[in-house]
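User: quick one, fold this
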Amino acid sequence: LFVGNERPYKNLARVLEAFALLATGYPGSLVIAGLPLPPRPALVDTEFEEARDTRGGHAAVLTRYPCVMFLLLSAPALAGDVLLLGASYVDRNDLEILAENLLDEGSGADRDVEALCAGGLTWAKHVDLVSTDETWATTIVDTPWNTVFMHEFADVADNAPDSEEFLASVEAGKQLGTWFAGNGADVFVWIAWGDIDGGPDYDDYTGMQDGLRRGAEAQVAGMATVGVNAYIVPIGEAFRAVWAGETDPLAEGTLFYRLYDTDGEHPSTTGSYLAALVIYTSLTGRDPAGLSAPRD
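Assistant:
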């Protein structure tokens, strides 16, 4: 039994790591209780999220109640494991395979990563397809995923928060989040990456990146209103970190430039690999340095 909150000085991460070493074959469970911290956009680099562990096929399952947090590490991973839901950014370069290979190599856990995506699919369209397409109904409503990463179509995700398209996205996110969380999944919402030049609506890359971050935070806040405690996975912020490390990030040949395909919007293999690294770290809490990289 651990009583306290998730602030770093409580050293909860070490408690979880120690219990994970005992979890395989151990008949008991670890219970964590305490008052939740004030609501905030949760990033996957917090101590609490880094403490997730999948040793021996055991996965962390988190349930939040108004006054109590329980973390059960002795439960086996749910069938289906990890789903990447989204549009063309997910569809490019076999992102699900890149993520699965990293998980296999870095954690030693045999985790299944699947994708449900197609170019131009918004969250609202995903919701509509549930009632018309058996694959969408089975994947979204009937499968008990362990973790779901939700990527919204970028042209919607960075819209003004009071626009009709964005409001529809928030409502669709509530429905999708309710379906996924209702089956026991941890739900993560992407911050996607901005167009290399900011696209038609922004002056530059950082302007669009800021818009995408605000959008993801609003989507997570929307899910919270229906009891879904989603988290932000800052994939686009990893792109921003690369951008910030360049003297001239838009110069041909820089690492930032090489994250993009020739259209300056979709990811190259390197860009998809960076996305997979962020997914890997959000699931394991481990430093991905030294893991195998694909050839671009």
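User: anything notable?
Assistant: The radius of gyration is 19 Å.
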